[in-house]
Write a structure and sequence with these properties.
Subcellular location: Membrane
InterPro entries: FH2_Formin, FH2_Formin_sf, Formin-like_plant
Membrane topology: Single-pass membrane protein
Radius of gyration: 45 Å
Main location: membrane
GO biological process, one term: actin nucleation
Strand content: under 5%
Order of helices and strands: EEHHHHHHHHHHHHHHHHHHH
């Protein structure tokens, strides 16, 4: 052991350029001459596996692809970096037969240019975009900012989103033309303060040095009363839609009042509830009632029978559907000779005409359809319950205030302004037209409000205070409960109480004397026909 081994292994010396080992091409492993022996005293490189020896003819393991490619000048250039493809690598075991051993080098060649185009990182474009972004940031940082930074940024974004030019806005303000509602709302919401407006007016340097929002506002401020004109334009643009909403709301309220007053079936339900309640309260101070608050309808589901399932509402529905079934059949039989007579109580006239036998099941089936249709009959009630009377009145008051503001702007600022434009004429014609429309809406609102109060008093008596649309909310909620009760009755087996024809059920006769009289009349008429 005469040779001395250093404590730290030195790095191997660099070979001359002429002795560098060139990279193998893509087509396969070339047969290379063995390199020079390692320097004396240096580390010994590890031996390659037998199947991976350079120059070996074995093709069981494909040659690894090169990581660098030669350019046209013969130099070495790095490959374009591609997007990563995440997978789980499996080590190819030479001692085990695997499908990967069947893959031969060079059997498949992909288009290198295409894969780089599709999945390569375009570093040049990225650098160019970064440079443009830096340039834009540097340019914006050198611009003069007068508005609040957040306001300036938001206004610039809104202007770009609306894709509108300042010349178009200025022309509209001078000629009285319509502008997008969103744009007007944004400009009014981000109007400059008195201090910002003064700074914009006093700025006499190059306008290009201002930001986008500042340039836009400075151009608008050259027009007299620009933002007052915007308010007037916004009112001119939105009045038609707003007045249509008010008219539709008032129409719904008027139709609801008529529906509730004229609904025969709803009145029948109130009669059934009144008589049922008096029977249950018989002998107490609650009995003998002649009317009740409609809030009581919402309590029918709270009273349950002995079985713990059937509620007082279920009982009322069962009695009503029997009564309505008999009535529907009677109407259908009377109108059988006239095919032009419609039967609103039935969903199918053909089915009603086929019923000729007094059958409780058939009566209940037909009556259930009639009672279930009450929700559709009172459709406007559900729509009216979603309205807010106070909000509607406030809405109308706001329209009137905006009209007076536009009228004042027309008679003061615009009158003293000497300019040749169509804005003055457009605003003047609009004020005359809007004055008539809003006056009509105010009169209609008073009339409908009185109609709603009279309808509430019609059911509740003179309450002495304005209950608004509370009556419609109660009826809407009750209609939902009624629909659920009809569904329960439809799904549950109908319990028919069989009694002799000449003897009515004592309790039922006490509850519904009108139904008892109708049944007696039906029985006598059947006997006469037989």
């Amino acid at each position: 052991m005469a040779s001395h081994v250093p404590s730290a292994s030195p790095s191997p010396p660099q070979l001359p350029p002429s002795e560098n080992v060139p990279e193998p091409p893509n087509v396969g492993p070339p047969a290379l001459k063995p390199g020079p022996p390692p320097p004396k005293g240096g580390p010994i490189p590890p031996k390659l596996p037998r199947q991976a020896q350079i120059g070996s003819n074995s093709s069981s393991i494909p040659y690894p692809p090169p990581t660098r490619s030669s350019d046209a000048s013969g130099g070495i250039s790095a490959k374009t970096k591609l997007k990563p493809f995440f997978w789980d690598k499996v080590a190819a075991n030479p001692d085990q037969s695997m499908v990967w051993h069947q893959i031969k080098s060079g059997s498949f060649q992909f288009n290198e240019e295409m894969i780089e185009t599709l999945f390569g990182y375009n570093a040049a474009d990225k650098h160019r975009n970064d440079a443009m972004k830096d340039f834009a940031n540097d340019l914006s940082s050198r611009r003069i900012q007068i508005l609040d930074s957040k306001k300036s940024q938001n206004l610039a974004i809104s202007i770009k989103a609306q894709n509108v030019k300042v010349e178009e806005v200025c022309d509209a303000l001078m000629e009285g033309n319509e502008l997008p509602v969103e744009l007007l709302q944004v400009l009014l919401r981000m109007a400059p303060t008195a201090d910002e407006e003064l700074k914009l007016r006093l700025f006499n340097d190059q306008t290009a040095m201002l930001g986008t929002a500042e340039q836009f506002l400075k151009s608008l401020l050259n027009i007299p009363f620009a933002f007052k004109r915007m308010e007037a334009l916004l009112f001119m643009t939105t009045l038609r839609e707003e007045s249509t909403f008010v008219k539709e709301s008032l129409t719904i309220l008027e139709a609801t009042c008529k529906e509730l007053r004229n609904s025969r079936l709803f009145l029948k339900l109130l009669e059934a509830v009144l008589k049922t309640g008096n029977r249950m309260n018989d002998g107490t101070y609650r009995g003998g009632a002649q009317a009740f608050k409609l809030d009581t309808l919402l309590k029918l589901s709270d009273v349950k029978g002995a079985d713990g399932k059937t509620t007082l509402l279920h009982f009322v529905v069962q009695e009503i559907i029997r009564s309505e079934g008999r009535r529907a059949v009677h109407v259908a039989v009377e109108n059988r000779s006239n095919p032009n007579v419609s039967i609103p109580s039935l969903s199918s006239q053909r089915f009603a005409e086929g019923v000729t036998k007094e059958s409780e099941d058939q009566y209940c089936t037909i009556g259930l359809r009639v009672v279930s249709g009450l929700s559709s009959e009172l459709e406007n009630v559900k729509r009216a319950a979603g309205l807010d009377a106070d909000a509607l009145a406030s809405y109308l008051s706001s329209l009137h205030q905006r009209l007076e503001k536009s009228r004042g702007f027309l008679n003061t600022d615009m009158r003293n302004l000497e300019e040749e434009s169509n804005f003055h004429d457009s605003l003047k014609a609009f004020v005359v037209h809007a004055d008539a429309d809003i006056a009509f809406l105010l009169m209609e609102e008073k009339r409908i409000k009185l109609l709603v109060k009279n309808t509430t008093d019609y059911f509740h008596g003179s309450a002495g205070r304005d209950e608004g649309l509370r009556l419609f909310v109660i009826v809407r909620d009750f209609l939902g409960m009624l629909q659920k009760a009809c569904k329960d009755v439809r799904e549950a087996p109908m319990q028919v109480i069989k009694t002799p024809r000449n003897k009515g059920n004592t309790t039922r006769q006490m509850l519904f004397p009108s139904i008892r009289d109708r049944r007696v009349n039906d029985s006598s008429s059947d006997e006469e026909r037989s």
